[in-house]
Amino acid sequence: MSHHIVELKDVTYTYPDQTEALRGLSVRITHGESVAIVGANGSGKTTLLSHLIGVLFPTSGSINIGGYPVTKKTLPHVRRAVGMVFQNSDDQLFMPTVYDDVAFGPLNLGLPPEEVDARVIASLTTVGALHLKDRTPYRLSGGQKRSVAIATVLAMDPCILVMDEPTAGLDPAARRQLINLLKTFEHTKIIATHDLDLVLDLCARTVVLSAGTVIADGPTLDIFNNEELLNKAHLEKPFRMQGCPICHPPKR
């Protein structure tokens, strides 16, 4: 279990074209939590995640991870603590084989070959993809690519797992397999997603963003039962909370 605390205080970020993506955003996530970040397109979800791994830095405000401010000087530490799985797995898979992709991070940490090999085997085994180790990544299915992308992160032994739309593009079977896998992880998990049914399965806490700021932060069921809040955030209840239209037709 992670003993890192993630804390953002009054974070503002403005893109070069003057688009204000984050506006005084504050949130604190403690070790071992599974937290969903939800909101409509353009609400700031991906921009927020990009700040957690130092792809972007705040225009104003501060970000602290495990007692370290996120700055260019602390990036090596931050990127050991935080592992991010991107929405598009092709952004993470670029080596000739799956094994090479998973080994890339540990090799760049300067680990000895024996430990690198052990991490690769363990990570691929964890995600059920050891049989793919000699395959070419671009020939894999969407679900296989997602599993391998997660393995590349696990091989770095992070304390905090950050995921951007982890179920995007997955078929139902691959989606369920991923959810079951994520249930086994004791990492701190921060998941930005439109898949609110996944949130019900994995995240006891949900943070709702709108126009780059937090408009709600609390227990997931409380958030999803607040129809006024969901309407304000341009969200709908998860499918399994909406009721069957055949069994419970709308009253006339």
In short:
It contains nine helices and ten strands. The chain has 252 residues and is α/β, with parallel strands linked by helices.
Topology:
Layout: E1 6-14, E2 20-29, E3 34-38, H1 45-52, E4 60-65, E5 68-69, H2 75-81, E6 82-85, H3 98-108, H4 113-126, H5 142-154, E7 160-164, H6 172-183, E8 188-192, H7 196-202, E9 205-210, E10 213-219, H8 220-224, H9 227-232
Parallel strand pairs: 3-8, 3-9, 6-7, 7-8
Antiparallel strand pairs: 1-2, 1-4, 4-5, 9-10
Helix pairs in contact: 3-4, 3-5, 4-5
CATH class of the domain at 6-91 and 156-241: Alpha Beta
CATH homologous superfamily descriptor of the domain at 6-91 and 156-241 = P-loop containing nucleotide triphosphate hydrolases
Q: Give the CATH topology of the domain at 6-91 and 156-241.
A: Rossmann fold
Runs with pLDDT <50, length 5+? none
Q: Sheet with the most strands?
A: 6 strands, mixed
Helix content: 25-40%
Based on the coordinates given, report the CATH architecture of the domain at 6-91 and 156-241. 3-Layer(aba) Sandwich
Q: What's the total number of strands?
A: 10
Number of helices: 9
Mean pLDDT over all positions: 90
Distance between the termini: 51 Å
Question: Strand portion, in percent?
Answer: 15-25%
Radius of gyration: 19 Å
